[in-house]
Amino acid sequence: MKTFLFKTEQMLGRPLTEVFSFFSDAHNLAMITPAWLHFEVLTPTPIEMSPGTRIDYRLRLRGIPLRWQSEITEWNPPHAFVDEQRRGPYRLWRHTHTFDETENGVVVGDSIEYAVWGNQIVDKFFVRPDIEKIFAYRSEQLNKIFHQAD
Fold it and tell me: What is the CATH number of the domain that holds 71?
């Protein structure tokens, strides 16, 4: 199985505890996901985050309705956590979230190892462009959310 890697970093000028608290609430994911995905968290609040926690979502990917389930496989507050797809559109999806405190705020890191059906062609023309658009939107929204907190 051919895997791909997507990485991005973003500086947020807020305290580590505030940034990690935002990311540790799965329901906040809807606020930083583009509307064209029709993303919805199905797991009721509150979600107790720890290794083994499973979270269910519903979304539309290129107009196709999908269910997605992720599992928290690593939980290291307030510095990192990992979620892995247990049910969804990818052959593999392992998303590592990191939070590194600096004197200017927090560097939020995302590293996603993923695999798709159809390998390089499907990734190049469909999956990678979607991931890049999703994370560009996410970056804009995070800037708005944390700038408003000033």
Answer: 3.30.530.20
